[in-house]
Protein: RNA chaperone ProQ
Amino acid sequence: MESPEKFNNSKEVIAFLAETFPKCFSIEGEARPLKIGIFQDLAARLEEEERVSKTLLRSTLRHYTNSWRYLHSIKEGAHRVDLDGVEGDAIEKEHADHAQQQLEESKAKAAEKRKAKLAQQPKRKDKRQFNRPKGEKSANSDHADSKRGTKPKNNRPNSTPPAKLTDSDLQQGTQVTVKLGKAPMPAVITEVAKDGIHVQLDSGMVVKVNADALRLARSKRS
Structure:
């Protein structure tokens, strides 16, 4: 018959103790103060238990009684319990004060560790800087430029709307822009007919459009 697999850590042992002695040990909720000398009681009751060694049992008991949850339970006047949950001696003020001191020191150490860990981490940059499209300035860049005495760049296109074509512009060779889709495209008038105006795009394609779809190219106006 194979031997049962041994426990590897205190967490496994505590879960085992809470299952075996539920009136004494617990893994959540309010803990119960343990009887003084309970290690000897545990060693005797678990003598045939091959999954836990006395060394691991001792370190587990130390881990359990040093936890914040357990230290909170050590209050003056509260009764200690044995493995079966039977209440025994009441906790004296000296023991309660000592447990409170341990609790405060443990919390202070934990806070110092968290503080040191945060200090070691690199400072996080504003994520919006990484998401900004290439070439786009930050919201405060114009303000910074004004402080340095330089005017912010204005990359906006000329707000003057393109001029409509006059009758004199409707002739072969006039440079225009034609709106095909969302963006106007440069073109040249190749023919003016009754049923429409034929223009040739930069791509070489010739299309027929109405005069209302054409605007005079800026180079022509200048």
The chain has eight helices and seven strands. Helices lie at 10-20, 38-45, 54-65, 68-73, 93-120, 127-131, 141-147, 218-221. The mean pLDDT is 82. The radius of gyration is 42 Å.
